[in-house]
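[step 3/7] inverse_fold.run input=structure_tokens len=174
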């Protein structure tokens, strides 16, 4: 899986792939690949890298996502690969960009649908919850509009980049 972490005004690509039971191969940017043991408990990620043990608290605060490690609290944004590509195409994101298709950022299981066909949604509104790597992720609408189709049901297993929900943008619906 590929993620992009935005931190300190810079974007850092991160590749994560399974490397056995509870182990993951992690590469940041063009750096070396490290094999780490990982355990996820809610928003707390425990990493064991050789003899070094780290606990990283990933969570939302009032002004966005934060990572806390060794007592330091840092504002960061973690983007799945599809969102990072869309932001890059839109020149960094912001208002006006976005697509009416909500896709799964990685393989997982649909936990709950938060909308029904015909519902009006706002940009940024949660529409579906997908569990991946033992973490529940609320996926949000990128555009305001009307839910046109729901392609999954609760408990469905989905692939990465699977189409979950189609939203007709407000400009096209009205």
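[step 3/7] decode complete -> sequence:
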């Amino acid at each position: 899986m590929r993620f992009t972490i935005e931190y300190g005004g810079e974007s850092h690509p991160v590749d994560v792939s399974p490397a056995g039971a509870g182990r993951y191969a992690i590469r940041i940017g063009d750096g070396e690949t490290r094999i780490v043991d990982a355990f996820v408990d809610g928003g707390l990620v425990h990493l064991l890298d050789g003899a070094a043990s780290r606990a990283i608290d990933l969570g939302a605060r009032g002004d966005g996502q934060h990572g806390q490690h060794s007592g330091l609290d840092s504002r960061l944004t973690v983007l799945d690969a599809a969102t990072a590509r869309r932001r890059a195409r839109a020149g960094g994101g912001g208002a006006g960009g976005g697509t009416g298709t909500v896709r799964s950022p990685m393989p997982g299981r649909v936990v709950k649908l938060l909308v029904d066909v015909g519902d009006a949604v706002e940009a940024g509104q949660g529409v579906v919850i997908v569990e991946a790597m033992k973490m529940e992720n609320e996926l949000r609408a990128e555009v305001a509009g009307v839910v046109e189709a729901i392609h999954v049901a609760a408990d469905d297993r989905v692939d990465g980049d699977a189409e979950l929900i189609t939203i007709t943008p407000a400009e096209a619906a009205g």
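[step 4/7] annotate
The domain at 2-80 is CATH 3.30.700.30 (Glycoprotein, Type 4 Pilin).
The chain has two domains: 2-80, 99-173.
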